[in-house]
Design goal:
247 residues; globular; mainly beta; 13-stranded antiparallel sheet; outer membrane lipoprotein receptor (LolB), chain A; 2 helices; 15 strands; single chain; two-stranded antiparallel sheet
Length: 247
């Protein structure tokens, strides 16, 4: 099954009759989402704004992503402001993803499973949020109709089978094209935070969210990710994603 990048949500133009769509199971809805066309590679320039009360911390980074055979994905986040922190992720099918963090000191730290629920660079994103999603790692349940971002949506509950950071998540999948526009995250079955995918517009024929907002459930803090530019299907050297390249 295909995987989706966290920062570049892809969508196609598949339309189903209302009667057929209403009969879809949660798994079938997510299969429609999973089957949408996606790029082989992606390069994005992103501004991050971390809101903590009245304080806003700004960071900038580049993210490079590449898909490989066997449902393998590799992603490299490189901060350009204010530090030179890097995060390398190798996403695997049917096994734990590998992540390594290069600190500004040059030291490389492996992110172990117990760290997946920790904050990434003091933002409201966790390391778990920066891994690829494999459709087969979750059990799905349709929750009927919903609305998010002004769109009519399917609501689908997703529960990860192993190594849970979240007890469950609820995805709002746009009915018109099966594009995910919002995800609610729960910890210990309590509403914890949610991410919205906004400013959706096509880039070389691929629908792309240019603004992502991760908000805490209490409304007191959030992190915004503004995608300043994105390029798809550029040639990319595999050496970029080697662990040794972090040093």
């Amino acid at each position: 099954m295909n995987r989706k990048y966290l920062l570049v949500v892809l969508a196609g133009m598949l339309l189903l009759p209302a009667v057929e769509a209403s009969a879809l199971t949660g798994r079938e809805i997510m299969e429609k989402n999973d089957a949408l066309p996606e790029a082989k590679t992606a390069v994005s320039q992103v501004s991050m704004y971390i809101h903590q009360g009245a304080k806003v911390v700004e960071k900038e980074f580049e993210i490079k992503s590449k898909k490989y055979a066997g449902d393998e994905d590799k992603n490299l986040i490189t901060f350009t402001k204010p530090t030179q922190i890097k995060l390398l992720t190798h996403s695997h099918k049917n096994q734990d993803d590998d992540q390594w963090l290069r600190l500004s000191s040059g030291k490389v730290k492996r992110i172990v499973s117990t760290d997946k629920g920790k904050s990434f660079v003091n933002s409201h994103l966790y390391y778990e949020d920066l891994t690829a999603r494999d459709i087969d790692e979750y059990d799905y349940n349709s929750l009927g109709d919903g609305s998010a971002g002004g769109f009519d949506c399917h609501k689908v509950e997703a529960v990860k089978k192993q190594n849970k950071v979240y007890s469950k998540s609820i995805m709002y999948v746009r009915k018109s094209d099966f594009f995910v526009v919002r995800i609610d995250f729960f910890k210990n079955d309590e509403f914890h935070k949610f991410i919205e995918y906004l400013d959706i517009k096509p880039v070389t024929g691929i629908l792309t969210a240019h603004l992502l907002v991760m908000s805490m459930a209490d409304g007191n803090a959030k992190t915004e990710l503004k995608v300043n530019s994105v390029e798809y299907n550029k040639e990319m050297n595999d050496a970029v994603f080697n662990k040794e390249a972090l040093r």
